[in-house]
Amino acid sequence: MVRSSEDNEKKNLVNKLKDVEISAPIVYGNIAFWLGKKASEYQSHKWTVYVRGATNEDLSVVVKRVVFQLHSSFNNPTRVVESPPFELSESGWGEFEIAITLHFHSDVSERPLHLYHHLKLYPEDDSGSMSVKKSVVVESYDEVVFSEPSEGLFARVQGHPAVIVPRLPAGFSLPPVSAEDADKRKRMDPKDNPLTQWFTIFSEADELLKLAAARQQVQAQIARVRRQLTLIDGQHQQQLKPPSEL
Amino acid sequence: MDAKDILGLPKNSLSIPPEKKSRPQKDSQRKPDGISREVYALTGGVPPPLMPSLDVNQLKKRQKSENEKITWEWLSFTSSARKDDLKLYHWVRVVNGTPPTGDYSFAKYNKSVDVIKYTDEEYEKHLTDPEWTKEETEELFELCERFDLRFVVIADRFSTSRSVEELKNRYYSVSRTILIARAPSLADVSNHPLVKDPYNISQEVDRKRSLSMVLSQTKHQERKDAEVLSEAKKIMEARMAAAKAAQAAELAVTSNASPERMEKAAAAETASPSNIQATSGVAPLMSIAENAAAAAASLRKLKVYLRTYALDQMVQAASSSAGLRTIKRVEQFLQELKVNLKPKVPTKAVCAEHLELRKEILTLLNLQKLLQNKEEGSSYREGSYTETPDTPKDRAFVPDSVSFGAISTERVGKRDQKRKGPGREAPSSPAQSNKRPRKLKATDS
Questions:
Q1: Closest-CA residue in chain A for B20?
Q2: Distance CA B391, CA B387 (A)
Q3: What digits encode the pLDDT tens for the residues A17-31?
Q4: CA–CA separation, B232 vs B9, rounded Å?
């Protein structure tokens, strides 16, 4: 069977890369401001719920749209955000759980992914020192893992700052990224989002250090217990020999 | 206003929704409407759908229209179901004179079975059987006719003791043979149920035996069966995962990973027959490997998932052999080590480290338990029989292993209560004379 080179390329784009995963680190959460003098009983806070790239990069490379499902008492509680920044602002007085659904581009996944975030308006310390300037920010870090992506997707997202792409072992050749894709990436720069000043910076270094230290401790204890076990076994051996001497 | 400026939002986009929140809803809920509030609360704010069973208005109004004269008379009747002409009496509803109602209304229920009647010739020709005499067969058919094929009764009344299955077998085979013999051709009868599905006595005996076995199973046996079935299921799933892994092994890239997986799967398979028979300590290790492979396979199937979800699955797979208490202990350990139960920054590296840490803690706990068992075994053997049993307050204490440096090992709990007889070494470290034993703290070292 003779296939044209074009067909071959198309087929290759659909091929899945086994045992390869790419991941997009995201942060989702909300930021809320007390309205101070302007607060009424039913609208005491202004809040924004959002999903962003962990380093404030543009998620639209993989995310097509985000659906925020609000409390049923809101008008049109299903809010769809089609373009970055994937955020939704509202005003209200109540805290509730927001269901966030990420819909991906068709080459990424057919199925959406669900996240849940509890909207936080009131600060932890209930000392009553509510100020219009202070914001309440609650963010959660997570990573969306795309297991065994197609070659086409891999090529498309390679090099994009929002996505972590592993280095492929030698022997893999991918079609080169077209020039227009590279341009599209520069278009929407979420770095000029006014909320950026409140965002948390998540660093894995701290956690890694703690985990490594913990593992060391546990390993030391394991070694110690193992030593004791062999000691006891040695003792038992001795005991077994002269039972009559008791 | 400044908040809106900060956020850079247009000033008209405020929606009015918050007013519609729960307050107006509560008002509508307070209106009873014939049903109490509690019922509304139970049914979720909606009145339960009711259909009137009786039209209450009709209950007292029922007066018969005066067109006909109704009387009740004590009259005699006969039934076509009876072979004699017995006349019995009962009340009859008479409308303007005696209506000839016809047969007794219950006579139609007098059904009976058409039991085949064979002639002697037919018996000689087709029906002789080494195990059945002619008299027995005749008696059987008589009883079948009399009792409408209720074989339990027939078995009871039968002169020689035969089991229900034997009687059924004889009756059905005789009937079948006669049917086939009398039929002009085999094709005519081949749709008759007797011919299509003949009575299979051995199958019936087996079926009833296994039914009674299932019925008389003790709870203990039930549990064991359930365990064996679930193990078999796990092994099947692991085999499927291994088969998938085998498929993935075709790519050159994974040539390193697959032999390990194949080994694990092969080891799991060889372990499986012995697993089902004996619950060895090896089994939990094998099943953890299977669980991990199964979890990884299911994640790969998902294609898109959250890293936290993946970590949860892997943690569950790793602690599948551990009971709830052990899992709680692992979490406690983590907390003492100042590690978050769920990592705050779940990157790939962090999740991998977290999983490994959990596995190591599990190993440590298992080793400690093992150590403690051995210690108890040794102290029991050395037999300090002079020690008096502990006071009830110290019931749950644990022997300190003096010779190995003062570490307090984990609480044994119930086992202590059983071993009250033989004495124990007295607690040697008064500093640790807590009434409750201390679990091994992460800070001990």
A1: A73
A2: 12
A3: 777 888 899 999 999
A4: 61
The letter for the amino acid at A175 is: P
Angle at B126 between CA B123 and CA B132, to 5 degrees: 65
- How many pairs of residues across A and B have Cβ atoms under 8 Å apart? 181
Contact yes or no for B337 and A35 at CB 8 A: no
- Work out the number of other CB atoms within 10 angstroms of the CB of residue B19: 12
Q: Taking CB atoms and an 8 Å cutoff, what residues of chain A touch B368?
A: 225
Nearest Cα residue to A108 out of A55, A61, A172, A167: A61
**Chain segment B73-85, per-residue pLDDT in tens:** 888 888 888 888 8
CA atoms within 13 A on the CB side of A88: 25
Q: Tokens in use for B382?
A: 């050395």
Measured between beta carbons, the chain B residues lying within 8 angstroms of A18 are: 248, 251, 253-254
Contact flag B251-A18 (C-beta cutoff 8 Å): yes
The whole-angstrom separation of Cα B207 and Cα B215 is: 12
3-state secondary structure B72-107: EEEEEECCCCCCCCCCEEEEEEEECCCCCCCCCCCH
- Give percent of chain A above pLDDT 70: 78
Q: Tokens for B368, please give them.
A: 């400690």
For testing contact with chain A, the best of B304, B313, B372 (most A CBs within 10 A): B304
SS3 annotation, B136-176: HHHHHHHHHHHHCCCHHHHHHHCCCCCCHHHHHHHHHHHHH
For residue A16, give the chain B residue with the closest CA: B303
Give the pair of three-digit tokens for residue A6: 């074009």
A143–B347 C-beta distance less than 8 A: yes
Q: Which secondary structure element, helix H or strand E, spans residue A104, and what is its range?
A: strand A97-104
> What pLDDT shows up at residue B25?
43
Asked whether A81 and A88 are in contact (CB, 8 A), the reply is yes
The 8-class DSSP code of residue B413 comes to T
Min mean pLDDT across B11-25, B53-67, B292-306 is at: B11-25
B254·A147 Cβ contact <8 A: no
Check if the beta carbon of residue B316 is closer than 8 Å to that of residue A123: no
Cβ–Cβ gap B343/A207 under 8 Å:
yes
Residue A4 Cα, gap to closest chain B Cα (Å) = 24
pTM given for the model: 0.49
Coil, strand, or helix at residue A100?
A: strand
Cα-based distances in Å from A143 to A53, A202, B319, B347? 9, 12, 23, 7
- What is the spatial distance between Cα A222 and Cα B119, in angstroms, rounded to a whole number? 89
